[in-house]
Amino acid sequence: EGELVVVDMKKTPKDGDIVVALVDGSNTLKRLVKQNGKVYLKAENKDYNDIYPLEELQVQGVIKALIRQY
């Protein structure tokens, strides 16, 4: 809350990018990890779990910038 992200919806996401993703019907911002032929979303905040899609993972864009208001 209180942050604004700039998203490139045309960039092809690669391993390690922070992305906006639709996962099993819910949107999230997480780091994209491709490991051993599997894809999951890594939480940067230790208070949140990594996300392993049950059915669907659709990357909607790659984060280009973060604007934080104080």
Report what the structure shows:
This protein has a 5-stranded antiparallel β-sheet, with no helix packed on it. Helix content is 0%, strand content 56%. It has strands spanning 3-8, 18-23, 26-35, 38-42, 57-68. It is built from no helices and 5 strands. Strand 2 (18-23) and strand 3 (26-35) form a beta hairpin. With 70 residues, the chain is an all-beta fold. The protein is globular, with a radius of gyration of 12 Å.
Quote the distance from N terminus to C terminus.
11 Å
Major sheet: arrangement of strands: 1-5-2-3-4
Number of strands: 5
Q: How would you spell out the order of helices and strands?
A: EEEEE
Could you say which structural class the secondary elements and strand pairing correspond to? mainly beta
Largest sheet: 5 strands, antiparallel
pLDDT < 50 runs, ≥5 residues: none
Beta content comes to over 45%
Helix fraction? Answer: under 10%
Overall mean pLDDT: 94
User: What is the 3D form?
Assistant: globular
Total of DSSP H or I helical runs spanning 4+ residues:
0
Tell me the Rg in angstroms.
12 Å
Question: Which features does this protein show?
Answer:
70 residues, 56% strand, mainly beta, 5-stranded antiparallel sheet
Q: How do the strands and helices of this protein lay out in sequence?
A:
Elements: E1 3-8, E2 18-23, E3 26-35, E4 38-42, E5 57-68
Antiparallel strand pairs: 1-5, 2-3, 2-5, 3-4
Care to give the gist of this entry?
It contains no helices and five strands. The protein is mainly β and 70 residues long.
